[in-house]
What we know:
Elements: E1 17-18, E2 21-22, H1 25-37, H2 61-70, H3 112-132, H4 142-161, H5 169-174, H6 178-188, H7 194-205, H8 214-237, H9 243-255, H10 262-268, H11 271-277
Antiparallel strand pairs: 1-2
Helix pairs in contact: 3-4, 4-7, 7-8
Amino acid sequence: MSTFSDCAVCGDQSSGKHYGVACCDGCSCFFKRSVRRGSSYACIAIAGNCVVDKARRNWCPSCRFRRCLSVGMNTSSVQEERGPRNQKITVYRNSRRSPASALPSPVYSAHPQALHFQILAQVLVTCLRQAKSNEQFALLNRDQQEVILQMVWSEIFILRASHWSLDISAMIEECGDEQLKRLIFGAQQMRADVFELNLLETLILFRKELAVSAEYAILLGTYSNSALVSLARYTLQQSNYLRFGQLLLGLRQLCLRHFDCALSCMFRCVVQDILKTL
């Protein structure tokens, strides 16, 4: 029985050789998609040195694509798509595919605010991908998933961006959007750990008023109640008897949907396209 080595890009188990390199299906598909679309990415941390591993490979498309190239993945071996693709991808700046000698490179706009918006848009993509990877959310049909994400994407973004593992405060600051800064600062005051963040995200995703049917309303309510119980037990285990109420109050501020900041208005124009690419 043949065995495969680890993926040269992210370290996950490879499924064989793809484009000249042993890699997993995820990185193979990502590389093929990026080359065919001629996608140009901007590093979410600007520095261009984000960690690319199994857990974080979807965080920064720019660094992931750079990693693909650095391990020797061959752009010329990517089979060209036949016919034009009438697909509007707003998150990434697309152009015709460059030849192998002119590989796509991160795009840095001459206008700093435009660059920051592009990077924050990629943060939004990562937030929504993470939401879709929720084990219970994945059990819902696609129509129900899309209805939920179209309604709560801004809440998911504020929750996750306020607790981002990389420091994106400079980008938030440079956007010059005072309302966005207040929203991010308010969410940061929750100081939620990873487990709390996941449960808060679950409570955002599974509000039963977002159900498309009576059956889904029962299911969403069940998942929401389960997350509430888990959050209550977890905070009690920390011997912080005020923590549960503090987190729910913080969540309530997110759910009030005071997202009238300029950046959120711009995101509304692209979120539909983002959801189509997930």
